[in-house]
Amino acid sequence: MNLKYLCCIVACVLLTGVVHAQKKKEKLKTKLSKYYNLENVDFKHQVPGSVDFAFGDGFQITSKDSTSRLKISFRFQTLFTASKNLSSEDKVATNFLVRRARLKFDGFAFTPNLVYKVELGLSNRDMNPTSDFDEVSGAPKIILDAALKWKFHKNLTLWMGQTKLPGNRERVISSQKLQFVDRSILNSKFNLDRDIGLQLHAEFLVHKALLRFIAAWSMGEGRDITVGNIGGFGYTGRFEFLPMGKFSSSGDYFSADLSREQKPKLSLGFTYDFNNNASRVGGRLGNFLEDSDGNYLHSNLTSIFGDMMFKYNGFSILAEVARKKSSTKNVGFASGTAVSAQMGYLINVPKFKNVEFALRYSKINPDSGSSLKETAEYTFGISKYIKKHNLKVQSDVSLQDVSGSDNFKFIYRLQTEFAF
């Protein structure tokens, strides 16, 4: 064959390949550009191959070929507290601290169906291993989340790594997006917190209603543990039913109706968790319990949660019930029941726009031999949302009644949230 013709054939083949690759690349860019503009993606309106920054959305970076993205964000909370036992002559106890400081990285790699999230806790309260010093090898507990999420089917996503378990709704809602300065006493004593393992998330639309199912298999000891599996594993299942369809901007997982839902929205949730041979007071939280010889004590802990979120036109309700049961009595594991209910209204008049008033009632009833104490708490809160949950000022006052203490405790808190 003539060399000239051979060169022409090779050139045509190469040119065809380049054109095909370019078209494939353009199709990918078009596909991902549509992805960036979806309502449930916080990487909106991002031009492929660019770097962008917006307050509340962090630094946003996409690769030139549109196959990966990275978002870097940081937030911190500055908290002032004052408390006093009303029947005591003790002085008012006051404190200023950085309550939380978080650095977060998230995005996708190669495809929007492979998402990652890494979140680091930088404040002393985030890192301090007070209850599990030996089990974390004395190291700071800096890693909060480190997880991959692979959407291998349009309705199914597999999570792998350390992250929040699908427990009570109030715990799964980010501490950045709360209606009060902090979560309720129900959450502090009963929540499942974080753990490392696998989770399978499923979501199905049935007419206008939405169904969600989550199954999790975890180590059962909590986050950042380095000594291996001390007891057994943890098994968690959660079901959610949204009869009126999705909330605006995933509003079933942030407090306050900042989206001002135009139609009533309701989400009902139920969680069951079994922690086999748990060694910590609360399963994945609290001190590790040991006998006089230094051997770990064990108990099977069962936790059940029911919760609901309702929002409509600035009005919101979050209610939860919890039950934790220990198979071992009189040893110090947490067991009992609890209820918590809160409601708030976001004002929509010019002088007080995005100011919210909220009320909350929480009650803990311990079982016999439990490490818990019977406690009731009444809270009134005021919040000013300047840039939604990214920039806000919150204040609340609580009256806490602990059984056996013969007095009421008054607590005042003031906190600012700054997230970029």
Q: Which assembly state applies to the chains in this document?
A: single chain
Mind describing the biggest β-sheet? 16 strands, antiparallel, barrel
Query: How do the strands of the widest beta sheet line up side by side?
Result: 3-4-5-6-7-8-9-10-11-12-13-14-15-16-17-18
Spatial extent as radius of gyration: 25 Å
Which parts are unreliable, with pLDDT below 50 for 5 consecutive residues or more?
none
Helix content: 10-25%
**First-to-last CA distance:** 65 Å
Note the overall shape. globular
Structural class: mainly beta
How confident is the prediction overall: mean pLDDT? Answer: 89
Elements, N to C (H/E): HEEEEEHEEHHEEEEEEEEEEE
Strand content: over 45%
Structure description:
11% of the residues lie in helices and 49% in strands. It is mainly beta and 420 residues long. It has a 16-stranded antiparallel beta barrel. A hairpin with a 5-residue loop joins strand 2 and strand 3 (68-85). The longest helix is centred in the N-terminal third of the chain and has 34 residues, at 3-36.
In short:
The chain is mainly beta. It has helices at residues 3-36, 124-127, 169-172, 185-190, and strands spanning 51-54, 58-62, 68-85, 93-109, 111-121, 143-153, 156-164, 194-206, 209-218, 234-242, 265-278, 299-312, 315-326, 336-346, 355-366, 375-387, 391-402, 408-419.
